[in-house]
Write a structure and sequence with these properties.
- There is one protein chain.
- With about 240 residues, this protein is of the alpha+beta class.
- The protein has 5 helices and 15 strands.
- The strands form 3 sheets. The protein has an 8-stranded mixed β-sheet.
- Helix 1 packs across helix 2 (about 55-70).
- It is globular, with a radius of gyration of 18 Å.
- The relative contact order is 0.15.
């Protein structure tokens, strides 16, 4: 465990902090990570765009970071590019897995400044999630100012309408979620139609809704707070979690 700075082609222990320009994290379980190249690609492209860093240099850092994670146990490492344009690895044990989640809609428009880049809004989104606990919720659902569903503070969301798997319309300001991409790909292999939607919050009432993320994979929404919605039965979540 600890924080490591990428310096002179190697990782060195570090206690420094910098505001985040880019961040990414993934679950490592006994040395295995789901879709690690997709996480790497997202981090590299974001570092190029936000900090002007070269792809080859960032990939050397990522290769070293991957090698620094223990091969046994559950870990949730985070890679960062700070406002100082320096690269860091935070080696962290993974929290316990969870298969269910209770959602609390944010009482206003999406507060993020950079919704398509993981990192700049991370501290604010973590604070939102902590505040949700006082309402008995695990995650905050973000919507546009007109009430269109976007995603969770630290997760993405999808929902089912009958046999259709629905996802937020790609024109909406949402993060390019690795886990959502994997679920959509899995739907294609299962012969399940996927429909992008601009969905009002109220239309999720009674539906099977999933919260998606690298740490927990698929979590079924089993409750709502502060909005009067009812969670639909999670009839598919267990099977798809196993497939994922």
């Amino acid at each position: 465990m600890g924080t490591f700075l990428w310096r002179d082609g190697r990782l060195a222990e570090d206690s420094g902090e910098a505001a985040l320009l880019v961040a990414d994290s993934w679950l490592v379980s006994d040395g295995v990570t789901r879709a690690l190249p997709l996480h790497h690609d997202r981090f590299v492209s974001s570092c190029e765009r936000e900090a002007g860093l070269g792809a080859a240099a960032v990939r050397r850092f990522l290769d070293s970071a991957a090698g620094a994670v223990p091969r046994t146990g559950r870990w949730f490492p985070r890679v960062e590019c700070g406002a100082d344009h320096r690269l860091r690895l935070r080696l962290r044990p993974a929290p316990e897995p969870s298969a269910e989640v209770v959602l609390l809609p944010h009482p206003g428009p999406d507060p993020r400044r950079h919704p398509r880049t993981k990192g700049p809004d991370l501290v604010a989104m973590q604070a939102l999630r902590v505040s949700a606990a006082s309402a008995g919720a695990d995650e905050v659902l973000l919507c546009t100012g007109t009430g269109t569903v976007l995603e969770g503070a630290l997760s993405s969301v999808v929902w089912w309408r009958g046999d259709l798997l629905c996802v937020p319309d790609p024109s909406l300001p949402v993060l390019d979620s690795v886990t959502r991409r994997l679920v959509v790909d899995l739907a294609g292999r299962q012969g399940v139609a996927v429909r992008p939607e601009r969905c009002d919050l109220a239309s999720l009432d009674g539906l099977e809704v999933w919260s998606l993320g690298a740490l927990h994979g698929i979590r079924a929404v089993t409750g709502w707070r502060g909005c009067g919605l009812t969670a639909g039965p999670a009839v598919r979540a267990d099977e798809w979690r196993a497939l994922l």
